[in-house]
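User: Sequence in, structure out. Go.
Assistant: Echoing your sequence, followed by the structure tokens.
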Amino acid sequence: MKKTLLVSLAAAALLANDAAENNATDNGVTTLGSIVVESSSLSDVNTEEIKSADTAEALAKQVPSITLVRRSGIANDIILRGQKRDNINVIVDGGKIYGACPNRMDPPTSHVITNNISSISVVEGPYDVEHAGTLSGLVTVDTVQPEKGIHGNFNAGIGSFGYSKVAGTLTGGNDTVRALIGVSGEWSGQYEDGSGNTFADQIDNAVAAGTAKAPNAYLPSERDRSAYAKRSVMAKLFVNLAENQELRLGYTGNRSDGVLYPNSGMDARYDNSDLYNVQYVATELAGWSKELSATYYYSYVDHPMWTEWRKSSMMMGTMTNHLTSTIQGATLKNTTAVSDTMDITFGLDGSLRNWDGAYDMNGTYMGPSINDADTRNIAFFAELEKRYNNAAYKLGLRYDDTAITSGNPALQDNDYTSVGLNLFADYGVKETLGFFGGIGMASRVPDARELYFQKSGMIIGTPDLDQTTNYEADLGMKNTYSNFNLKTRLFYSRLKNYIYFNATPTITQNNFENVDATIWGAEMAGTWYASDSVYVDFGAAYQYGKKDSALRDQNGTNLADIPPLKGHLALNWNYRDDSLATIEGVAAHQWDRYDAENGEQAIGAWAVMNLKVDHRINRNFGLILGVDNVFDATYAVSNTYKDLTLLSLDPYGDVMLLNEPGRYYYANVSYKF
């Protein structure tokens, strides 16, 4: 990766300072450009994150505040600052998508693959008013855009454990019309952990250790089946309606088959999704509009999970939970330049989300899992941005009105209203020193699973949950010198009515409840340039979380999903133009502060080394070679909080941990024009 692109976190640290340098006056007074709420950025994802299609893995590797939630060989999830699920907003090309699986086999990040992504921005904290429910942060994914002329990018890859991939993108156009088509296919066997255990072996080991039941194991005929097959297609058409007006049409389709989830009781028969986007953008419309945009999006996810490949299917038959998820929404937004130093934005936002699912046994209907639940949201938002000589601030406001209904008339409907506010400021003391910080509040409503989910005839959801509100403060510092930059950040998050799963075995229904909680933490990232060709990246993150009080029938107050201290250190060598060699170390402290009453357990500290060479053969051909987990360590990064349904011997017993892949070799060859 090019130096300016690989150091994604360092680039985020430099954003405001770059703006200051670009606007410095002759007398040395620093003038800030447009304020950017401090974020972590990944660039050229489609050409750099080629190891697999898993966007969650790319995020966890590049962003210190993000931890991977390992679910399978693909389609993994993320924790951002100690929160996951709907507490994180994921936006793809201006639209939303929600997975259909209540057990997070298909989180939003799984429906956009790295091969289609141009860039990703991660804003930590509640500093977003354009989208409903941004609690712990916002992940904005921008996919590859069509270009003028004719261009192509094709690549093929192989890796350990039977991994293979082929992908290609072709784009072309002129000043009036641009189009793009991209296709990819990816296949893999079950990875082996550092001890040589496949998915099937890990379940067998869990059965022997008393953390899984024998019927959870794979059938002898299915022990060696592939871990997944994934195919994707993306198409875009951009039309310039006038010199300052553009219409953008986009479609992405994903088809995944036979995805294994070893420490869950079911696997995905398939997982299909379709994303549609339509956007109109106009700039400089007389004096009243600097930019006007109108966006419509629609997404559909189809996800049946079943026990067909497990031993339980031979004993009790095949149980299936077949769910679908749709969301459609529209946003109208206009930004006006009040003056050269002030912009104001007003917008309207609305969406309708549906979640529906039902169980069947050998094709016989067994009742709903989520009964045709609708979530309707309508909102107004406004944002004011003001710039001074050496400072800038952004003030945001959002008002939401949300109604949630169930197809089961016996379960109550819910109405929620909320106001979100935030203020984020940036102050440049001098060219080498700057400060930034913010305060904000944002809310997110319960989803249909938390309210209405059913299992074995019991209502696991809690229909009268309150919405969660995050009150947060952030403070950070940026140091930028000719050969060194560093960004440090502290945050304090006060969570009112945080939605939590109570796994007490004697509680067999209404397992979700509200509890007040606190999360605080620190993050740092930077780069040291030892020479023109050698530089070092580094980063670390730490969080601490507590409930104000124990849940029903419990005693502990440790908060689940609070990862231990994690850090990375990478030595990079640009040994020739556009060619880079990297030695990277990633490590985490032992997970010794956890919520045992709700399924979590102690996890040992770990450290791995990764090697990568990105070699540009010529202007058209490139070759990437890499080894992850060089020393073949056996370790786990994801804990076992029971808001996920994971394997265990009984409600009182330990839960099965899923180990990470062992030593992994990969190679990718690319051709572009």
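User: And one key feature?
Assistant: The helical segments are 3-6, 8-22, 45-48, 55-62, 199-209, 312-316, 448-452.
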